[in-house]
């Protein structure tokens, strides 16, 4: 080749320098430079040595790997060499993967030589061969891939009793493991299917982690709830028995009639007593001034003729198994002085031997009735 010429990868520059682009192993050898003019000729021999190293695997050449069904498998392959080796994989079905993956797919080859097999199944088991090659040679390693499966297991107790108070929210956990990953659902005592991330009846919700949430359950929500964890190789179940207890509150008198009341003959008297409390509702009892107890559940309503002996303290009692409360009402009976009708001076004349009627008519007050009322508020 003469100066200022280029053929493919070879070039002779104007100053006589011989350039070889993208040098290959076959370019090694002796190159002769010849210079001549009218006065003579000169020659120079150059021996070109191309440095190259055959690939060498950096990992063990034989390896066994086990992954669970449905998981991804990462098969590593690292090699050194000069020039840098090209990595390719031969799959169990004898297909070859050479190109670096630039999009998501089941089998992907990364730039570092690692092969990924996504969402493994039983057809993916077998021997995978990694081949590292360059111009100086090749090296190989193999990975035997096994696919394993595990039936679901639930981490919590398989039977649990859970008791909460009325108005509290309930959380029922169900942590399941397996390969492939199990699908978790709940079944209520009514047979309703409860799947993750959906509300049922406005108060039942299953979180993605398998926890069942019941918002402020009442007694009608009590019963057995079953967690079912399912995958392709098995099923596991767990049952939670939910009991809802109403919150107990002590008996407490909320209101009564005025603590001191004057009652006149001819008037009307009604004594009220209202109380709250639950589990159970309070029993209302009245104590009369003479010590007589008058009961009423949930209401006492008693009437009788009011006389002076009914004057005194009336005590209302409200009681349930949690506690007792009482409140007194004092009644004073006010009597009017007698009034003679037609209170004027008169003369009555009666014949001898007859019967004399001397009228003295009194103006009497009306008979008064007393009523006791007790109400247990819900």
UniProtKB/TrEMBL annotation:
Keywords from the UniProt entry: Disulfide bond, Immunoglobulin domain, Repeat, Signal
Ranges in a coiled coil: none
InterPro entries: Ig-like_dom (IPR007110), Ig-like_dom_sf (IPR036179), Ig-like_fold (IPR013783), Ig_I-set (IPR013098), Ig_sub (IPR003599), Ig_sub2 (IPR003598), Neural/epithelial_adhesion (IPR051170)
PROSITE patterns tied to this protein: IG_LIKE
Occurrences of domain Ig-like (ranges): 55-146, 152-243, 251-334
Protein name per its UniProtKB record: Matrix remodeling associated 5
Source organism of the structure: Sinocyclocheilus grahami
Taxon lineage: Eukaryota, Metazoa, Chordata, Craniata, Vertebrata
């Amino acid at each position: 080749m003469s100066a200022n010429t280029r053929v493919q990868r070879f070039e002779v520059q104007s100053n006589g320098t011989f350039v070889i682009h993208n040098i290959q192993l076959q370019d090694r050898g002796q190159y002769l430079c010849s210079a001549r003019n009218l006065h003579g000729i000169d020659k120079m021999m150059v021996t070109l040595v191309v440095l190259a190293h055959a690939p060498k695997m950096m990992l063990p050449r034989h390896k066994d790997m086990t992954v669970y069904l449905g998981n991804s498998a990462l098969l590593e392959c690292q090699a050194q060499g000069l020039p840098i080796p090209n990595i390719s994989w031969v799959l169990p079905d004898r297909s070859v993967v050479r190109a670096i993956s630039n999009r998501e797919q089941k089998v992907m080859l990364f730039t570092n030589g690692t092969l990924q097999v996504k969402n493994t199944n039983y057809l993916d088991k077998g021997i995978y061969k990694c081949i590292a090659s360059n111009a100086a040679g090749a090296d190989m390693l193999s990975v035997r891939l096994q696919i394993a499966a595990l039936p679901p297991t639930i981490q919590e107790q398989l039977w649990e009793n859970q008791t909460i108070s009325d108005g509290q929210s309930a959380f029922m956990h169900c942590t399941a493991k397996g390969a492939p990953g199990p699908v978790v659902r709940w079944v209520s005592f009514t047979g309703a299917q409860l799947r993750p991330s959906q509300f049922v009846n406005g108060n039942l919700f299953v979180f993605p982690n398998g926890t069942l949430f019941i918002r402020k359950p009442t007694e009608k929500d009590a019963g057995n709830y079953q967690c079912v964890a399912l995958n392709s190789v098995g099923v596991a179940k767990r049952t939670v028995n939910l009991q809802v207890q109403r919150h107990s509150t002590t008996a407490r008198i909320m209101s009564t009639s005025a603590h001191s009341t004057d009652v006149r003959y001819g008037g009307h008297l009604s004594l009220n007593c209202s109380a709250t409390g639950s589990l159970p509702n309070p029993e209302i009892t009245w104590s009369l001034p003479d010590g007589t107890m008058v009961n009423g559940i949930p209401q006492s309503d008693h009437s009788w003729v009011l006389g002076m002996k009914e004057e005194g303290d009336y005590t209302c009692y409200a009681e349930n198994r949690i506690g007792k409360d009482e409140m007194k009402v004092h009644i004073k009976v006010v009597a009017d002085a007698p009034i003679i009708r037609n209170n004027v001076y008169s003369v009555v004349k009666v014949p001898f031997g007859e019967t004399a009627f001397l009228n003295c008519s009194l103006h009497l007050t009306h008979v008064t009735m007393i009523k006791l009322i007790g109400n247990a508020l819900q």
